[in-house]
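Look over both lines before class:
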Amino acid sequence: MKAIIDMHTHTVASGHAYSTIHENIQFAKKHGMKFLGTSDHGSTMTGGPAEYFFHNLKVVPREMDGVKILRGMEANILDVNGNIDELDSKALDGLDYLIASLHIVCIEPSTKEDNTMAILNVMDKEKVKIIGHPDDARYELDYEAIVKKAKEKNILLEVNNSSLSPNTSREGARENILKYLELCKEYGVRIIMGTDSHICYDIGVFQYAEAIIEEANFPKELVINYWEDQIIEFFGI
């Protein structure tokens, strides 16, 4: 099967990525993506774009070179209450989705209970559709509670290709991804593969994510990347 969507991608606007949105679109097309989400970091991330950047995403065409474009943001989870980077209603209304993620530079790891509550609470935020890389062992998590809430709220848990790469800075990702894949299988919760690309060459390349999904014998029908009808329905395209 061929994945046709990559929703976790960054541009030079994130401050620590190295390609333009045009370059990302070119490689999305080259790698067979029908849908591309642009999801630069929120402003709390070091070097991240200011709020007005997200206001102006309206200038990004909805389709380029046969690739449909979705406008998003990787929102930084800031505290146990699930607060994220501030966006006013105009900026938020212009976005199609949020990825909510824990990042060491934005929130210190805490207890298993507090780390888990931060994710459970962010799932109640408007437009949060994906929990990004919930796999870093530095943030101990109650995966069963997270998977159950994801099912309740119809939120996708990400299998992050970058977390599994040899040069990842995250810890224990492989073991943790296998844990929540097993629970997602048990509870019938959908997942999404994301490249977390910080350079255009990685767009739509899921070799590590696909390998672990195969290893876990995870049902393909629960991997939204493969199903155009599910993608259209879920993201309201």
